[in-house]
Amino acid sequence: MKKGEEGGEEEVSLQTLSKKMDDFAKARDWEKYHSPRNLLLAMVGEVGELSEIFQWKGEVARGCPDWKEEEKVHLGEELSDVLLYLVRLSDACGVDLGKAALRKIELNAIKYPVPKKTDDHCVGDGEQSSSNIKLNEEH
Biased composition, Polar residues: where in the chain (predicted)? Predict the structure, then answer.
């Protein structure tokens, strides 16, 4: 692991999380329960718990500046639950999540190109460029 830029914290890789989750499950003999279906359903449950945090808050500003510290800690715990189940699910399915995510970003860049600027507006502002129409027709 490398030192991060902020506060000397360590950067965490998906591989590190995967290994820690695998070790955790093996130590408890839980692997037999970690089928893709079970992991997906557990993750959906955690997404529900994450949703509950936001349920009655209305719009929340980026960075959650009006939240109490204990609310942010709880948010971090629920986000972590979702992430850890997602990493475990990708392992159970034999998917390299990091590579899949990078590929998806590349595909999205093709599907949603940066608008071309003209003198007074961007192509795509209120209209679709011909390249966007073509991509949308393919999907």
Answer: 127-139
* 42 dihedral zone (left: phi>0; alpha: psi -120 to 50; beta): alpha
**Total-model pTM:** 0.76
Amino acid at 15: Q
* 90-137 pLDDT per residue, tens: 999 999 999 999 999 999 999 999 998 876 666 555 555 444 544 444
Report the SS3 class of residue 89.
helix
Torsion from C-alpha of 113, 96, 16, 83, nearest 10 degrees: 70
Question: Which class for 114: exposed (0-12), middle (13-18), buried (19 or more C-beta within 10 A)?
Answer: exposed
